[in-house]
Specification:
single chain, mainly alpha
Length: 203
């Protein structure tokens, strides 16, 4: 980080514009800032996942080859840094902070979690414990960030790299699998869709 922030407020954004890394002033309603905001919001939710995971007590000891609490925290931290790099790409189009190597790493994380989970036989509702619910919130924000990023790239193809789009797509999958793994880790029940629950409205 070449330049250190010594003053937080500048008043230059009071007119509804903000500066890009290249010096251009752009409206804060511009689509690029919608995507930046979604990615920033997603990163904050990942941080909340880490905080909730860290507050868990009396976790059962993982079985052989199962990701440990420390490994999960390391993965969460890595994801936060990757999302920061996505934001860097949005702010500085010449900067490329995400590569195919990062996508492969994330896919390996998905496989490492998923191999310890039972096969899905029903739809899962975005509910459960506080930790699991928080992961589902992050997943839905990730989906929104991806949709907005695709919208941005459709308007400006060089606004974000292909690996960054892939990362957002794969990240929502990782969060879904993480929600299931954490439910198992804390020995809480997944909330399944019940096809009969709305029968009370019939007839």
């Amino acid at each position: 980080m070449g330049n250190r922030l010594t003053k937080i407020y500048t008043r230059t954004g009071d007119d509804g514009t903000t500066g890009l890394a290249n010096g251009n002033r752009v409206s804060k309603s511009d689509l690029i800032f919608v995507v930046m905001g979604d990615v920033d919001e997603l990163n904050a939710h990942v941080g909340m996942i880490s905080a909730h995971l860290n507050n868990l007590t009396r976790l059962p000891k993982p079985l052989d080859n199962q990701p440990t609490h420390a490994q999960l925290q390391n993965s969460l931290s890595t994801v936060q840094h990757l999302l920061f790099n996505v934001g860097g790409e949005l702010a500085m189009p010449e900067y490329k902070g995400i590569s195919d190597q990062h996508i492969t790493w994330l896919e390996d994380q998905i496989d490492a979690l998923n191999q310890h989970l039972p096969a899905l036989k029903d739809f899962i509702l975005p509910a459960g414990s506080i930790l699991v619910s928080q992961i589902h919130i992050a997943r839905t924000v990730c989906r929104r960030a991806e949709r907005q990023a695709v919208h941005l790239v459709n308007h400006s193809s060089d606004a974000l790299s292909s690996p960054s789009l892939k990362l957002l797509n794969r990240l929502s999958d990782w969060l879904f699998v993480l929600s299931r793994y954490c439910a198992k880790l804390e020995q809480s029940q997944e909330v399944l869709w019940d096809k009969n629950i709305l029968d009370k409205f019939n007839g």
